[in-house]
Specification:
The complex is a heterodimer. Chain A is an all-alpha fold. Chain A contains 9 helices and 1 strand. Chain A has one domain (about 20-90, about 115-255): Particulate methane monooxygenase subunit c2. Chain: C (Glutathione S-transferase Yfyf (Class Pi), Chain A, domain 2). Helix content of chain A is about 75%, strand content about 0%. Chain B is mainly alpha-helical. The chains are: A mainly alpha, B mainly alpha. β1 of chain A pairs antiparallel with β3 (about 245) of chain B, so a sheet runs across the interface.
Chain lengths: ~260, ~250
């Protein structure tokens, strides 16, 4: 097909930029991509070294391949928590009473992206690696609370989603007027309830000092985790709060125009 | 009598307002998908767990009782929000489909590719037919009472027959070392797990077995009764969690 002046002018047009309410979309997608690569990387590490060096915690190789990973995770968790939470707090909006409706709408979108990243981390911790723990304990007797799967699930995935949930909570508290005036109960439930799952690791591991196999995964010793995850249903309330406010703000913009 | 709301009250969004609302919908869809896979799967794995993991746990007494009873919880809670607030008749199906997606990914990559269990040994059960009935009934009746009684019962009663095409073949009898057992049991003996001995102690006990072929329908009807009670309980739990309150302090 021949190239016409019309085609040339079309091809030299500037690429369409994202609408104002989706400015943070690239960061959100990058976050998703980064987490996906990280979780798949951890799973591949397990595939490479769990059976080879993760069956007996008294072997020197266990210290090298697994406990070293555990120490690295602790450093990363501490850095990510202090970095993200510190940034969100220090860069807080101190003039929320002057916030324009459009900017507030944009921030609701960003909050939804934060919660979405949080639920993505909840997926890996609550779904994939959680059930994988059962698979591992069917073939390996636990001789330590730091098994090849626990090191990734309990001591990295759990704290990581807690940090990301905390980010969502802090973002709302420091950048959105309604969340700054009052403490949103559903957002608090949805973040602090699953946080209790991390705390339940203590109860679980204490129980497993008596009961070192995994004969019965659906056992009461695991129900602390279950109650914690019910609180994720609070996301329904966050959605209702967000939608109600977005409708108000959209009407306000429309009335002004 | 329900309030008569004139149709003219609802003005569809147009232009940028519509595009913005649609973009928000897509964000919520992604958020909800991972939320329900993560949360419902953890809840399910640690309460139904073993009955769903292993083919030789799928017995006549406990599997048809426990699975629907625990499986109706999140669907009821999510319906309480999606139907009541947004008129979306898909809460149950969304939850169950998310659960199935999560379990399939795990069974393939955590059981089969990590620890070499055959995929046939760890097939997840389905609750999709029951969830479809639950959503349809709520949409057609708009009644918590009717959905609790008939939807809850259908969710339980449909479980065993709709799973039979998947798992029936594993109940075929085989003779191994002069003993008769099922194909499912043979899987269990061939792929030794720590879960095996406790399984035998729990499942082989109980007088319901003496009822022979009636054990399964009895378990299913017991589950139907319990699901009818579990459904409204979790409806209200879902409603409570999805509150819109702001507190002065925590």
């Amino acid at each position: 097909m021949a190239t016409t002046t019309e085609h040339v002018s079309l091809s030299t047009e500037k690429p369409k930029s994202l609408p104002w309410y989706l400015i943070d979309l690239p960061k959100y997608l990058k976050g998703f991509g980064f987490l996906t690569i990280m979780y798949i990387g951890l799973r591949l590490y397990q595939g490479a070294f769990a059976i080879a060096h993760g069956l007996d915690s008294s072997e020197p190789a266990f210290e090298q391949y697994w406990m070293r990973l555990f120490y690295i995770e602790l450093v990363i968790i501490a850095a990510v928590a202090s970095g993200f939470w510190g940034y969100l707090w220090l860069s807080r909006d101190r003039q929320l009473d002057q916030l324009a409706p459009k900017e507030e709408i944009r921030r609701y979108f960003t909050l939804t992206m934060w919660i979405s990243i949080y639920t993505f981390a909840v997926y890996w911790a609550g779904s994939y690696f959680a059930e994988q723990d059962n698979s591992w304990h069917q073939v390996a007797i636990r001789d330590t609370p730091f098994t090849a799967n626990h090191i990734i699930e309990f001591y990295f995935n759990f704290p990581l989603y807690v940090i990301l949930g905390g980010c969502a909570w802090l973002y709302a508290r420091t950048r959105l007027p309604l969340y700054a005036k009052g403490i949103s109960l559903p957002l608090t439930l949805a973040v602090f309830g699953p946080f209790m799952i991390l705390v339940s690791v203590g109860f679980n591991e204490w129980g497993h000092t008596f009961w070192f196999r995994e004969e019965f995964f659906a056992a009461p010793i695991h129900w602390g985790f279950v109650i914690g995850v019910w609180f994720a249903l609070g996301v329904g309330g966050i959605l209702l709060q967000g939608v109600t406010r977005l409708i108000e703000l959209l009407d306000k913009i429309e009335d002004a125009e | 009598m329900s309030a008569q709301i004139p149709i003219s009250t609802f003005k569809p969004y147009r232009g940028e307002k519509a595009r913005l609302a649609r973009a928000y919908d897509y964000l919520i869809l992604v958020l909800a998908l991972f939320l329900f896979i993560g949360s419902f799967h953890l809840h399910f794995a640690l309460t139904v767990g073993d009955w769903d993991f292993w083919v030789d746990w799928k017995d006549r007494q406990w599997w048809p009782l426990v699975t629907p009873l625990i499986g109706i919880t999140f669907p009821a809670a999510v319906q309480a929000v999606l139907w009541d607030k947004f008129r979306l008749p898909l809460g149950a199906t969304l939850c169950v489909a998310a659960l199935l997606l999560g379990t399939w990914v795990t069974r393939v990559f955590a059981y089969h590719y990590w620890n070499y269990f055959p995929i046939n040994m760890v097939l997840p059960a389905t609750m999709i037919p029951g969830a479809l009935v639950l959503d349809t009934l709520l949409m057609l009746t708009n009644s918590l009472t009717i959905t609790s009684i008939f939807g809850g019962a259908a969710f339980a009663l449909l479980f065993y027959p709709t799973n039979w095409p998947i798992f029936g073949m594993f109940h075929q009898p085989v003779e191994v070392a002069n003993s008769q057992l099922t194909v499912a049991d043979l899987f269990g003996f061939q792929y030794i797990r720590t879960g095996m001995p406790e399984y035998l102690r729990i499942i082989e006990r109980g007088t319901l077995r003496t009822y022979g072929q009636y054990a399964t329908p009895l378990a299913a009807f017991c589950s139907a009764l319990l699901c009818s009670l579990m459904y409204p309980l979790w409806w209200y739990i879902g409603k409570w969690f999805a509150n819109t309150r702001y507190l002065k302090k925590i």
